[in-house]
Amino acid sequence: MGARYEAVQWNKNKKVYDFFLIAAIVVYLTAFIISGALTRAGDQAISPAILLIRAFGSCAFILLTLILMIGPLARLSSFFLPILYNRRHLGVATFVIALIHAIIVVFWYHGFGELNPFVSVLISNDRFDSVSQFPFEVFGVVALTILFLMAATSHDFWLANLSARTWKNLHMLVYIAYAALALHVGLGFLQSEQASFYTVLVYSSVGTVIAMHLITGFREWRRDGKSIWIGKGGADWVYVANVKELRDGRAKVVGLGTGEKVAIWRNDNKISATSNVCAHQGGPLGEGRIIDDCITCPWHGFQYDPANGRSPPPYTEKIETFELRLEEDALFIDPKPRAPGTPVDPLVIKEN
Amino acid sequence: MACLWPSLPSHDKNDDMAIAELIVQGVGTYLTIGLIFAVFFAFAGVGRVDSHAKGATLGFRVLIIPGVAALWPMMVVKWLMGKKAS
Predict the structure, then answer these.
(1) Is the ipTM of this complex over 0.95?
(2) Which of A119, A233, B46, B76 has the fewest CB atoms lying closer than 10 Å?
(3) Using CA atoms, how far apart are residues A202 and A178, in angstroms rounded to an integer?
(4) Are B13 and A3 within 8 A, CB to CB?
(5) How far apart are CA B75 and CA A162, in angstroms?
(6) Which helix (H) or strand (E) element contains residue A253?
(7) pLDDT grade, residue A1 (50/70/90)?
(8) Which residues of A touch B56 (CB under 8 A)?
């Protein structure tokens, strides 16, 4: 970061994203509450508090499922990249919804006795030997704690001050949170609610998240298998692409067989090569596109000049650059990266 | 009713209550200290820890309070080290 910290660096895209996010949440909660009230009339009626608990709880589960599916979906199709763009706000919204669910639960089930409500939550159920009456609340507490830590440390201040590795490891806990949430729902709501629709919804959500990660993982593994092998001693120039296969404003991502990936960019008639890893949070730059002559990360919109790998002022992020050479239509790369921010003249190609 | 395992050692309800109260009081104390520190840190110390936070907006300072309240021991160390370095 090179600029003074703000609460949120708003731009038009983020405002549109948040508008649709809040609208979708409001529509879901309203539809859930109205349909619940209408379909549960008479003997089947449930209290408004329980309806709210279920509405907010199911909303948090769906949002977390969506969060975990966005990454794989965006890798399978660029159509989903706009949802990935502001995933940070989606995560914070998920925590807020889960917190409202927890607050209503604590007050409704534990707020009217003599015991401290939080003590009551911990000791009200000790049936650890039972599936149908298991104290599923403990999994909810685990999931909510992780969601809180992730939401509270989502600002770039924390990325800079926790170190990138610690921050990344902390935010990888989202998978533990999702597992805990699945157990919370499976051992809680699904045990009391016999409606098979909810059972199918929960298990198919968890199954889809696992399947999506396996599919994209397999695709990555296959793509890495096609990496250019430069050997232990390295190589001077290696073939990477036919220039005709490069799409304007997009990148071709090439593995170098050393674990490093390079993004080969075409911006109008200029070709450049940079590291595929965003200096902000390690996002896959090559899955982004060029906006206003700058490489734009699909994760959070961080930008870099393709000719020198530097973020436009006042930002100071830098990424590695690479030398390219053109022979007829064949594009060759020097696999030795230049230091982050090193200017490399783009190759200029003839139109068509 | 399905049973996960046939026999669990019996335990005293009073012990459970005492442990639960200890946990709630412990977490409550930790977060109260954290919250008090976080307010001081957000308005007086964050600029020493991170130069980009000097002159940062009010919204940013309020936004970091929950995280500092949760991770306050680490931020105390960072603040002290920042003071030492300056």
Answers:
(1) no
(2) A233
(3) 11
(4) no
(5) 10
(6) strand A251-255
(7) low
(8) 4-6
Question: How many helices (H) does chain B have, and how many strands (E)?
Answer: 4, 0
Name residues whose C-beta falls within 8 Å of residue B79's C-beta, 6 or more positions apart in sequence.
B41, B45, B48, B49
Q: How far is CA A50 from CA A90, A109, A112, A276, A294, in A?
A: 25, 10, 15, 48, 50
Contacts of A153 in chain B (CB under 8 A): 67, 71
DSSP 8-state symbol, B42: I
Residue whose C-alpha is closest to residue A253's, from A264, A242, A269, A238: A264
Name the β-bridge partners of A130.
Answer: B3
Q: Is A303 exposed, middle or buried (0-12, 13-18, 19+ CB in 10 A)?
A: buried
d(CA A294, CA A306): 6
- The reported pLDDT for the residue numbered A211 is 96
Q: Residues A110-169: pLDDT tens digits? A: 999 899 999 999 888 888 888 778 889 999 999 999 999 999 999 989 988 998 889 889
Residue with tokens 């520190």: B37
**Average pLDDT for residues B30-54, to the nearest whole number?**
94
Give the distance between the most distant pair of CA atoms in chain B. Answer: 65
pLDDT tens-digit series, residues A221-265: 887 666 565 555 556 788 888 888 899 999 998 887 677 889 999
List the single best residue of A121, A129, A141, A315 to mutate versus B (max B Cβ within 10 A). A129
Q: Does A114 touch chain B (CB under 8 A)?
A: no
Q: Do A272 and A344 contact (CB within 8 A), yes or no?
A: yes
Using a CB-CB cut-off of 8 Å, the residues of chain A touching B54 are: 4
Residue B77's H or E segment, with its range, is: helix B72-85
Of A173, A170, A179, A168, nearest in space to A210 by CA: A179
